[in-house]
């Protein structure tokens, strides 16, 4: 019998339980994959802690790489033995699982299992953030919070590749050095640098056209002050907690600002969109423009330790669970 991490009640990392599971044959439109590497993302913590609703019990995780070991008769896009990757499909912390075949993308030969698992959710998020939510281009100056995190590090490199000037916030001097070496022109350290003041100085008082914020409560209101008139606030996470309710007239007073809360399901709703986004991600990585840093690896059964590490905010780059 294969094993998985199951959450029977929400709470801290200790709620991640290592249990046997039963995995049946694929149903219509499904494939069964034996997973080799599983990506860890902050959204997994939100589900585990109960910040996001999910029927109990559940298996957390939203991205992994594996090998196809069975397919439903109606699936024609895959064959047995294909090495595949997916993101945005809950239930990834498992040795074996069923996945909708239309969410599976074949992994190019030049990308390893652990890189694929670390890349897909973060890379696809970075793709829709800088290529769709706001289309970053040459001459833009942008602000990226949590620049040394999994998405942040990819986003900084990709934006720099697109010709942007990147301002990034981090929590330590060590992380500032890391992002400086990976596309961030102006690394700013929380608690040391006033990022609003720095943004105004860097942009000559104009502000930036877009802020990418995955921190939430601790940075949100100040981030609005970094935007130029009609700028876009992109809130795509809440590692410090949810943003409290606020008077929307603030957006008017600060320059007719735009606010969005993008999600992968909305930006990648079809197989065609998934394949298009994945191809862009693979291309930018294989070109060398974006490098994937996996600085922490854990056994799948030790997912609780991976969550503790991620929540400490001492991690950089990506975390991967090896199944």
From TrEMBL:
Q: Which PANTHER family match?
A: QUINONE OXIDOREDUCTASE PIG3-RELATED, QUINONE OXIDOREDUCTASE-RELATED
The record ties this protein, via Gene3D superfamilies, to: Medium-chain alcohol dehydrogenases, catalytic domain (3.90.180.10), NAD(P)-binding Rossmann-like Domain (3.40.50.720)
The UniProt record lists the keyword Oxidoreductase: yes
Which keywords, in A-to-Z order, does the entry hold? NADP, Oxidoreductase
The name under which this protein is listed is 2-haloacrylate reductase
UniProt EC number: 1.3.1.103
Enumerate the PROSITE patterns for this protein. Answer: QOR_ZETA_CRYSTAL (PS01162)
What Pfam families does UniProt report for this protein, alphabetically? Answer: ADH_N, ADH_zinc_N
Q: Where is the Enoyl reductase (ER) domain?
A: 11-321
Q: Name one GO molecular function term.
A: 2-chloroacrylate reductase activity
Enzyme class of the recorded protein, top EC level: oxidoreductase
InterPro entries the record matches: ADH-like_C, ADH-like_N, ER, GroES-like_sf, NAD(P)-bd_dom_sf, QOR-like, Quin_OxRdtase/zeta-crystal_CS
């Amino acid at each position: 019998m294969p094993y998985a991490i199951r959450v029977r009640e929400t709470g801290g990392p200790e709620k991640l339980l290592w249990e046997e599971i039963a995995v049946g044959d694929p149903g219509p439109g499904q494939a069964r994959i034996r997973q080799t590497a599983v990506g860890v993302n902050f959204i997994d913590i939100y589900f585990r802690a109960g910040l996001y609703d999910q029927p109990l019990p559940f298996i957390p995780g939203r991205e992994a790489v594996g090998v196809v070991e069975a397919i439903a008769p109606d699936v024609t896009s895959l064959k047995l033995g294909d090495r595949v990757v997916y993101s945005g499909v809950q239930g990834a912390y498992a040795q074996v699982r069923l996945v909708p075949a239309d969410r599976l993308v074949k992994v190019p030969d030049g990308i390893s299992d652990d890189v694929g698992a670390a890349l897909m959710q973060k890379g696809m998020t970075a793709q829709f953030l800088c290529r769709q939510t706001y289309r970053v281009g040459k001459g833009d100056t942008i602000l990226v919070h949590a620049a040394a995190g999994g998405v942040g590090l990819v986003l900084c490199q990709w934006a720099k590749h697109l010709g942007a000037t990147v301002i990034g916030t981090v929590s330590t001097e060590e992380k500032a050095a890391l992002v400086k070496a990976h596309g961030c022109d102006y690394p700013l350290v929380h608690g040391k640098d006033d990022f609003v003041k720095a943004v105004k100085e860097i942009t000559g008082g104009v502000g930036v056209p877009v802020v990418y914020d995955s921190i939430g409560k601790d940075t949100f209101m100040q981030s609005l002050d970094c935007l130029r008139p009609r700028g876009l606030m992109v809130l795509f996470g809440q590692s410090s907690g949810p943003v409290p309710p606020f008077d929307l007239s603030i957006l008017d007073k600060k320059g007719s600002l735009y606010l969005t809360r993008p999600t992968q399901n909305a930006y990648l709703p079809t197989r065609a969109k998934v394949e298009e986004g994945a191809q862009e991600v693979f291309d930018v990585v294989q070109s060398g423009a974006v490098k994937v840093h996996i600085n922490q690896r854990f056994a799948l059964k030790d997912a609780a330790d991976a969550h503790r590490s991620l929540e400490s905010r001492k991690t950089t780059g990506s975390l991967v669970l090896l199944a």
